[in-house]
Design a protein that fits this description.
The chain has about 1000 residues and is mainly beta. Helix content is about 10%, strand content about 50%. It contains 11 helices and 49 strands. The protein has a 22-stranded antiparallel barrel. A 5-stranded mixed sheet has the order 5-10-11-8-9. The longest helix is centred in the N-terminal third of the chain and has 19 residues. InterPro entries: Beta-barrel_TonB_sf (IPR036942), Plug_dom (IPR012910), Plug_dom_sf (IPR037066), TonB-dep_OMP_SusC/RagA (IPR023996), TonB-dep_OMP_SusC/RagA_CS (IPR023997), TonB-dep_rcpt-like (IPR039426). Belongs to the TonB-dependent receptor family.
């Protein structure tokens, strides 16, 4: 039977015992009933008919991300499913985003989902997986879907299924793309050099009037003029004398710049370049199929000395050796190289953080040295520019450092090597019973080398080098017994399984100082050993699990599962724990009154309840008190008490309830789902404080003491607006809500304050706890805070009443209170795909409504007394005149500590709309390219992170789930052009 291409939909996935087979699903209106192919979907340890699922399982197929210029499969998860929140990856090439599924699963331990690759748990970096080797991934969100993974599934599960060969003719595919990499988030607007000097002068003048009572304005003006350069900023880049630069608050109109090379970003920021090449070859016979691929990715970031290079090679073979025996194996080799920029999140305030430096350096300092007389840029005898080490900079401008020079001289190199291997055997005992076994072995060797130069910076004048070697090995071995049988309209499936998991971590670190010769950063070139630790950690899990599925004519659905886990992280008497789920569904479409409906094509109600766990703690030995080695005194050995353990500590447990409705109307041109979930985390692991007299390190012990919930609604909708022979147009959207609340803390713990947050019963873990900003006193420009209760009845010069409200100008007397939350009211994505004949277009937007971001980056640019640091253009709205209404306090060197203090002033709305990605492509007609020996040829242009709208220019509201900001490598905009061809 011949079918038109328009009747064919995308590949459907079949997965049994580690095997993936791809098949075309034919439109249900074009074939007799007996020829229809049932759509199945990948689930834990197998597959299941989609119509009989009772769990929450979102499938994302390769075609949805195949044309995108992504180096990490985690980037394809953003916007792919309701209930999934993504903190975008940094601009560092190859970096991965952070992912949360259905809220905040924990407070002190991991909230990341579990990844499973081809049926085996995967703990390596997602950057080691070539996105073009992936056939699909499934996001499992509720207990009915995840409970078979037991103690590792509390934060959801992402099943990644790799590509397999197909029976039939051999196919050779070649894909290539290349393009541009640039910055996607604009920088905050800041004042220029001509604006800057009068602003600092004003802060000095106002500070003099405040700190020295009786000083006249004339005297204060003269004081500010005299001290502006010599006392504060140290550098005058204009061609007028220091004492004539700013007079009475006005920049000398005759002032001209002596030199103009004041841009620190230009030498550090460039246009990056991305290229990707892939060749894959697949095919097979009736007995054996194969898929092989090689790929090369090279991406240079828009910050100098940041790049990522990856080479992968993969082979997967499946063979039906006997009619009762099927085996398969796959192996992937990965080699990657990374030139790492400074991690802005972990090194937020570091002097070598290029994002911090270029954002906060005052607009009056040059990176380069200049002749003191001619002001010409200086060069050494070899013609190289001489950098300015900063002796003539203010206190906020990092005297003695130069981020450009240090970035060029320092090194941070990563070299990673991975082997990812899978094998399975499937024995068909009889027509109902199948025995299968899967084994997965992964080994990861991570090597990192750093070099600190001896000319300028932290390592000067000795120079330093470090070498880090990390080897991780995982071995997973499971055995599955699967029984499927049909009795009339009754369908049963029973799974019984056993699994061993072994993880070993080996670490070696060497740090030496005292460089001997130039251009050699091996440790042998350094004299003094400063640190040389090593360690080996082991982690084991043993599991037994079972699942039973039942359906009556795909109409009444039941599912139940249980898993017993033992984790080596916990003591023997609490090591074993059971996790389980039960689910039910009613496929109303299967009822006689809807069976023949042309309007309603799918209608199913489903629900589940279950318990899963989280043992991903920050220690492999949570129940054991530990001691730290290496505290030696010369040749005398030393040991130090390092960690006090609670022997009874065990898993955090998630109790999950899920109710959903799936629907499809008008020949499935409109499809979607609505879900509600309630996720309760019991036995939260918290740091319980202990008295200092106890002699316990850090004065706390970890215990299972808390309870919190996450609950919300999820909506997804897809509609084919147009569907003709030449035109198809689809629109889709998803939306999610989230409510998080702590409901219990242990006795003796009423609150836990951590940075900008306070954890207490009745509040979210992401609720802000901040000084309460009131505003600016229109009378004198003072910063105002609500008064803390302890000072409400006192009288002091720093407490006053404004507009009937008791306030203070002293941030130390300010009231602390809850001030909103980082959790949005609504988040999700929407997109469209359109095709006309050979042309296709797809686009996706992500959005967030509600929630607040604590913008510490902006706060640093709004100092009321900057001593060489940059200033936001919003500082131009500062208070200057009695009666003036503004939200920016007066510039004042005497009161700036209060103006700059952390408070609710720095909260800003987290609403955003992002044009996340778009692709436009053209596919040539087969008849036009067949003479070239090609079966297909497609040209495409694709882009990532194309545009965003936020509450403030420069703001990046999705960089953390907690709503805080850092001076990090902001995400890259990537635009590529490429082609795909097949032989």
């Amino acid at each position: 039977m011949k079918l038109k291409l328009s009747l064919m939909t995308t590949a459907v996935l079949f997965f049994v015992g580690g095997q993936l087979v791809e098949a075309q699903k034919v439109s249900t209106d074009t074939l007799p009933k007996e020829q229809k192919i049932e759509e199945v979907i990948v689930v834990a340890y197998g597959s299941q008919k989609k119509e009989t699922l009772v769990g929450s399982n979102t499938e994302v197929k390769a075609k949805q991300f195949a044309d995108r210029p992504i180096s990490n499969i985690g980037q394809a998860i953003d916007g792919a499913s309701p209930g999934v929140k993504v903190s975008t990856s940094t601009g560092q090439p190859g970096s991965a985003p952070s992912i949360q599924i259905r809220g905040i699963g924990s407070y002190n331990i991991s909230t990341s989902p579990l990844y499973v690759v081809d049926g085996v748990i995967y703990t390596g970096s997602l950057s080691a997986l070539n996105p073009n080797d992936i056939a699909s991934f499934n996001i499992l969100k509720d207990a009915a879907s995840t409970s078979l993974y037991g103690s590792a599934a509390a934060n959801g599960v992402i099943l990644i299924t790799t590509k397999s060969g197909r029976k039939g003719s051999d196919v050779l595919n070649f894909n290539m793309s290349t393009g541009y990499v640039g910055r996607s988030i604009p920088e905050y607007d800041r004042v220029n050099a001509r604006q800057y000097y009068p602003l600092i002068w004003e802060a000095i003048r106002n500070g003099r009037l405040t700190s020295v009572p009786g000083t006249t304005v004339t005297a204060a003006n003269a004081y500010a003029t005299a001290n502006l350069i010599s006392g504060v900023l140290k550098t005058n880049v204009f061609n007028v004398p220091d004492n004539q630069l700013v007079i009475d608050g006005i920049l000398n109109p005759d002032a001209q710049l002596r030199y103009t090379d004041l841009d620190w970003q230009k030498p550090l920021v460039k246009t990056g370049f991305r290229q990707n090449y892939e060749l894959n070859f697949s095919g097979g016979t009736n007995k054996t199929t194969y898929f092989s691929s090689v790929s090369y990715t090279n991406e240079t970031g828009y910050i100098i000395k940041s790049d990522f290079e990856r080479f992968t090679a993969r082979l997967k073979v499946d063979s039906q050796i006997k009619n009762w025996l099927k085996v398969g194996t796959s192996i992937t080799g990965v080699s990657s190289y990374g030139n790492n920029s400074v991690d802005g999140a972990d090194s937020n305030s570091s002097y070598i953080n290029p994002y911090r430096w270029t954002r906060f350096i005052g607009p009056i300092y040059s990176p380069y040295a200049h002749d003191p007389t001619t002001f010409a840029t200086l060069y050494d005898s070899s013609g190289n520019v001489i950098y300015d080490a900063g002796s003539g900079r203010g206190a906020d401008a990092a005297a003695g450092r130069n981020v450009i020079q240090e970035t060029l001289l320092n090194k941070d190199i990563s070299k990673n090597f991975y082997i990812i291997s899978r094998a399975y055997a499937e024995i068909k005992v009889d027509q109902y019973l199948t025995l299968s076994t899967n084994v997965g072995y992964d080994i990861r060797n991570n090597r990192r080398s750093t070099y600190g130069n001896r000319i300028i910076g932290d390592a000067a004048p000795a120079g330093s080098a470090t070498k880090t070697a990390i080897t991780e090995q995982t071995l997973t071995f499971n055995q599955l017994l699967n029984y499927k049988r049909k009795f009339g309209e009754h369908n049963f499936e029973f799974l019984l399984g056993h699994e061993n998991y072994k993880f070993q971590y080996e670490y070696l670190y060497g740090y030496k100082q005292g460089q001997v010769v130039d251009n050699n950063d091996d440790l042998i070139n350094f004299v003094t050993i400063r640190s040389l630790p090593s360690q080996t950690d082991n982690y084991r899990k043993e599991s037994v699990f079972s699942r039973i599925n039942y359906d009556f004519n795909s109409k009444y659905l039941l599912s139940g599962s249980i898993r017993w886990d033992a984790s080596s992280r916990f003591k023997e008497d609490v090591r074993w724990h059971s996790f389980w789920s039960a689910g039910a569904g009613w496929r109303i479409k299967g009822e006689d009154f809807l069976k023949d409906s042309k309007t309603i094509n799918e209608l199913k109600i489903r629900g589940s309840y279950g318990e899963v766990g989280n043992d991903n703690t920050n220690s492999y030995y949570m129940y054991q008190s530990t001691y730290d080695l290496g505290y030696n005194n010369a040749q005398e050995p030393g040991i130090l008490f390092g960690y006090l353990a609670d022997p009874s500590i065990t898993w955090e447990s998630n109790k999950q309830t899920d109710v959903g409705i799936d629907f499809g109307f008008l020949n499935n041109r409109i499809t979607g789902s609505v879900e509600y979930y309630n996720r309760i985390t019991d036995d939260l692991i918290f740091q319980v404080p202990l008295p200092v007299s106890s002699g316990v390190p850090n004065n706390y012990v970890y215990k299972n003491v808390g309870t919190m919930y996450n609950r919300g609604f999820e909506f997804s909708l897809s509609a084919d607006v147009l569907k003709t022979q030449n035109i198809t147009w689809n629109i889709n959207a998803n939306a999610s809500t989230l409510k998080n609340k702590v409901t219990k803390l242990s006795d003796g713990i009423n609150e836990i304050i951590n940075g900008t947050k306070k954890i207490s019963v009745g509040h979210s873990v992401y609720d802000y706890w901040l000084r309460q900003w009131y505003g600016v006193d229109a009378a004198d420009g003072s910063p105002l805070f609500l008064v803390a209760d302890d000072y409400a009845g006192t009288t002091a010069s720093d407490i006053r009443t404004v507009n009937g409200t008791l306030v203070t100008t002293n941030f130390n007397k300010a009231k602390y209170d809850y001030s909103g939350t980082a959790i949005p009211d609504l988040f999700g994505s929407f997109g469209t795909s359109f095709s006309y004949k050979n042309w296709s277009l797809s686009a996706m937007f992500t959005y967030q409504l509600g929630g607040m971001t604590y913008d510490s980056n902006y706060a640093s640019l709004m100092s009321s007394y900057s001593q060489g640091g940059a200033l936001s253009t919003d500082i131009l709205n500062r208070w200057t005149t009695p009666g003036q209404i503004t939200d920016v306090p007066a510039l004042n060197s005497a009161t700036y500590n209060s103006s700059n203090a952390g408070s609710s002033r720095w909260l800003v709305k987290s609403d955003f709309l992002s044009f996340r990605q778009a692709t436009i492509g053209y596919s040539f007609n087969t008849s036009d390219i067949s003479q070239l020996g090609l079966t297909s040829l497609r040209i495409l242009v694709s882009g990532e992170n194309l545009w965003s709208k936020t509450a403030r220019k420069g703001l990046e509201p999705v960089q953390t789930f907690s709503g805080t900001t850092s001076n990090r490598y902001t995400p890259a905009r990537i635009i590529t052009i490429g082609f795909n061809l097949s032989f």
